[in-house]
Design a protein that fits this description.
The protein has four helices and no strands. By secondary structure, it is mainly α.
């Protein structure tokens, strides 16, 4: 069985996958360009906020940064769904990215719960 991946490393890998997706989608045309920018922004922001939380100044700051990461992860799930539904996914398979974004949301939410409980 594979060792569970650290959330910092996992969100970094997810961001790389989002960059790859954006490169595949970017055809320079209207709505696709907008969707590509949106998913690129939110999908890479998750890991950036998790990374920032590693140097949080307090427990409240840590929780705050994880809450931002959770919001960005949920937003990324939305953009993935929208891209898939609008046939913007002809060049790639979004199922694995959608599943990973859902798992990342669950992990981040659990980290927030545990931090609030003091675990």
């Amino acid at each position: 069985m594979a060792k569970p991946q650290d959330i910092v490393a996992r969100t970094f890998q997810f961001a790389l996958s989002i960059v790859d997706l954006a490169n595949q989608l970017d055809d320079g045309k209207g709505s696709t360009r907008v969707l590509t920018r949106q998913i690129l922004r939110s999908g890479t922001s998750i890991g950036a906020n998790i990374e920032e939380a590693q140097a949080a100044e307090s427990k409240a700051d840590f929780i705050h940064k994880y809450n931002i990461a959770l919001k960005e992860a949920r937003e990324t799930k939305y953009w993935l769904r929208l891209i898939g539904a609008s046939n913007g996914s002809k060049k790639t398979d979004l199922d694995s990215l959608t599943k990973e974004s859902d798992e990342i949301c669950r992990i981040i939410a659990q980290i927030i719960i545990n931090a609030r409980k003091g675990k």
